[in-house]
Write a structure and sequence with these properties.
alpha/beta, 5-stranded parallel beta sheet
Length: about 140
């Protein structure tokens, strides 16, 4: 399945986010999916260097449209406006949305009630295990 990976970036440690999302993409791809993450997209890197926020979202929305589903990685109760926008765009396009929510965020939003499937994780190993459940 062609998947768009949504994650929070603002306010997060860039190295931690990069390592986590590399694990997400590698795990999904190893299980037969085609995972896209803009953290590893040269076009988005260039847009970030230009501080072109509108362009970054335009690229994200274009890639969501090309995907069959969206995988949302929630790491805390803090809200990511960009991630919520990506989830909304995927939902508006009739795409399946799979929520992978850290245990610290459980109960902090209504997102689990909106998505097609909800998974909970605590450690990076847990995250890998639940990502493998996505068929």
């Amino acid at each position: 399945m062609k998947l768009f990976c949504a994650y929070a970036f603002t306010g997060e440690d860039p190295e931690t986010v990069t390592q986590r999302m590399r694990t997400v993409v590698e795990t999904l791809n190893a299980n037969g999916h085609d995972a896209y993450c803009n953290r590893f997209d040269e076009v988005v890197d260039s847009l970030q260097k230009q501080d072109d926020v509108k362009g970054i979202f335009r690229e994200a929305f274009k890639n969501i449209e090309k995907s069959e589903a969206l995988v949302a990685i929630i790491t805390s109760p803090s809200r990511s406006i960009g991630q919520i926008m990506e989830i909304g765009i995927a939902m508006s396009q009739g795409k399946a949305v799979y929520l992978f929510e850290h245990s610290s965020a459980v109960g902090s939003s209504y997102l689990p009630r909106l998505v097609d499937k909800h998974f909970t994780w605590t450690t990076i190993d847990d995250l890998q295990d639940v990502l493998k459940q996505l068929k």
